[in-house]
Design goal:
single chain; 324 residues; 5-stranded mixed beta sheet; mainly beta
Length: 324
Amino acid sequence: RMKLLTFNNPGKVSNWRLDHTGLIRIALARDVEPKTKRIKQTVFHRESEQSEWKSIYEAYADEGKVLTAEGFDFDNKTLFVSGRFNGRDKEAIHVWDFSKNSPGELIADHPLVDVGELLLDKEARKLVGVAVDGMKPEIYYFDAEYAKLQATLDASFPGQRVNFQWRGNRVVVSTTGDQNVGKVYLYDTARKTLELIYSVKPELDGKTLSPKTVINYAARDGLNIPAYLTLPEGIPSKALPLVAYVHGGPHSRDHFGYEPTTQMLASRGYAVLQPQFRMSTGFGWKHHTAGWKQWGLAMQDDVTDGVAHLVKQGIVDPKRVCII
């Protein structure tokens, strides 16, 4: 069933945020400013369904200061936002200060990547931590009990990304990894038992897949380029044919974990390079804007320099390289 939550639209809204009562409280709008032709964000807030929308923040998209409303705390008053505030290069999570209409207390940041995902326990009505989408996924907890359970589960699944939902003494656990499409388990915290519920791709269970590793290399102008490298399992890593497997967008990025195309190529003996070239998102504003007006130029050089880096190490045969 569908329910109309509001007919009161402040205009050009691209995203809404609800509080925990189901009331729309935040509206994020974007429009092209007529005089400058620049994309401008306006963030609106209202206290109640009867209250008027009030602008609490404005920013130009080309300055990298766009705000994301991550959500309300369970008091329905505290708003968490993420963005590049106070001259930061990486997005960080703050508490919004409604008295000053500006970002307040810093909740979470990271030196290498943007941060912007809150972890909430809706039944216990508390914020428990943040998830970070780094070159490998990371989780940081504010809640000691969640941190303890995460450590227990991580010990059972070394090298895997472990997520869980916890209710009472029952925990639904999902695991993924570069060699694991996904498995779901039921963990009983009282009996300390772990039961497999299902495998996402059982036909690959027991098969040896190729590991994906994180590498970094310097582009010709010195910019650090993080990348994923998948090498074929069971073959010496010398003079291999290479596929440079480049993500689209370019306002995008690759992620750690199982990827069917990468595994297919590696199973045929190819090394696979996935560079997070300049313009890729999630690695800060400087890394992103270094790709502005560099399509087919420095952006392309980043891919070439990644291939050269592997050739120099003797991993790749320079006469057997292609790009997709």
